[in-house]
């Protein structure tokens, strides 16, 4: 990522759907092995596996694409939805700090969660299953610091 870039936009990582993609791969591999070995394969079973795999891929991609997070010069934005959209915009000065969290599995695949804590009433804005959560946290903190400096310069 470029250091001078002022906006970062991320979506949920495909890596978080790895178990689903692995299941699809195993199903397709099993069907392929049965076909190659010359054994009789029920036409319904083949169609069911292909339809199930297609539905799972579509579902995971729709689920992944319906959520995005954006950090710009003034705010952190969480937007959710495809046909109808709900957007939560939090001013950077309202965020007290941010933490990144990763399980051992997430560390191996370099994705995880970030919690942006707000000053108001111990609430947090959870940012789930994104690639490079540490980079996202660092970028967020840089924008927070820049915003605080600019606000203090304006007030002086």
| Cα distance spanning the termini | 33 Å
Please tell me what the overall shape is. elongated
Number of helices, where a helix is a run of at least 4 consecutive DSSP H or I residues = 4
Largest sheet, in brief, is:
4 strands, antiparallel
Work out the number of β strands.
7
Which class best fits the helix and strand makeup?
alpha+beta
Average predicted confidence as pLDDT: 91
Topology order in helix (H) and strand (E) letters: EHHEEEEHEEH
The largest sheet has its strands arranged as 1-2-3-4
Radius of gyration (Å): 21 Å
Fraction of residues in H or I helices? 40-55%
Give unreliable regions as ranges: none
Strand content: 25-35%
Summarize the structure.
By secondary structure, this protein is an alpha+beta fold. It has four helices and seven strands. The protein has helices at residues 18-36, 43-65, 104-109, 133-155; strands at residues 8-11, 67-71, 75-80, 86-91, 95-101, 111-118, 124-131.
């Amino acid at each position: 990522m470029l250091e001078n870039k002022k906006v970062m936009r991320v979506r949920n990582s495909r890596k978080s759907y790895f178990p689903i993609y692995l299941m699809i791969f195993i199903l397709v591999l099993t069907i392929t092995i049965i076909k190659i070995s010359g054994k009789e394969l029920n036409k319904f079973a083949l169609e069911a596996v292909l339809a199930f795999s297609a539905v799972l891929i579509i579902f995971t991609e729709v689920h992944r694409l319906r959520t995005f997070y954006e950090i710009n010069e003034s705010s952190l934005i969480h937007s959710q939805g495809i046909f109808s959209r709900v957007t939560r915009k939090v001013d950077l000065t309202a965020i007290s700090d941010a933490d990144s969290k990763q399980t051992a599995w997430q560390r191996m695949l370099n994705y995880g969660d970030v919690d942006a804590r707000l000053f108001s009433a111990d609430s947090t804005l959870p940012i789930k299953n994104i690639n490079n959560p540490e980079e996202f946290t660092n970028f967020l903190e840089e924008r927070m610091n820049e915003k605080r400096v600019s606000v203090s310069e304006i007030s002086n």
